[in-house]
Amino acid sequence: MEFETLVQSRRSVRGFRNEPVPRAVIEAIIESAKRAPSSMNTQPWHVHVLTGSPLEEVRRRNMEEMIAGAKVKRDIVSHGEYQGVHRTRQVDIAKKLFGAMGIARDDKPMRQDWVLRGFRQFDAPVSLVLTYDRVLDPGAVCHFDLGALCYGIVLAAWDRGLGSVINGQGIMRSDIVREVAKIPEDEVIMTCVAMGYPDDGFAANAVRSDRELNEEFVQYVGFAD
């Protein structure tokens, strides 16, 4: 698939078929994605791929802790709640998703269930936990590198018929993820990618988020026109 078509067609998938993903397919995805740009070729990333009972344990404990009111415990510093235009965009996509799923504004149980789906990593059969070498903290550069790898993963997955959603809720309790996945302390857990074969009958999978017009965020300098 041509790159432009691949980027335009890719979307976040929040409903997956109950179908395992072969290890060989994931290996091929990572093989492609690792060609992502990396500052000075430092390649600060690590990928921990979970499926089966370990992933189920992470899902269950993450959800139970958050339901019980446990505090978020992520390795990376959080920005806190979004405000202003960022909050507006967050609300806009939530409205689209709830509309597609038929979740009414006053339907608290269904809205809560949607939140819990995030903590369960949307019941995807595979989760790729992305980490980087702690020795590089604090460092936005290695964060950038990991973002590039992450996007490479989701594009390579889509090209192979797999859907994914970059999912910070899945590692809200990074201590649980670290314990179950046996991630060493010298790695920082940044995010995870829930992955699997898309369920075409799941309404939210058809939702596409809006993007600002180029003139809203692009500035051209030095061009004749």
Automatic annotation (TrEMBL):
Domain named Nitroreductase is located at 8-197
Q: Which domain of life is it from?
A: Bacteria
By its UniProt entry, which InterPro entries does this protein fall under? Nitroreductase, Nitroreductase-like
Tell me the Pfam families matching this sequence. Nitroreductase
Give UniProt keywords alphabetically. Oxidoreductase
- Membership in a protein family: Belongs to the nitroreductase family.
Name-wise, this protein is Nitroreductase
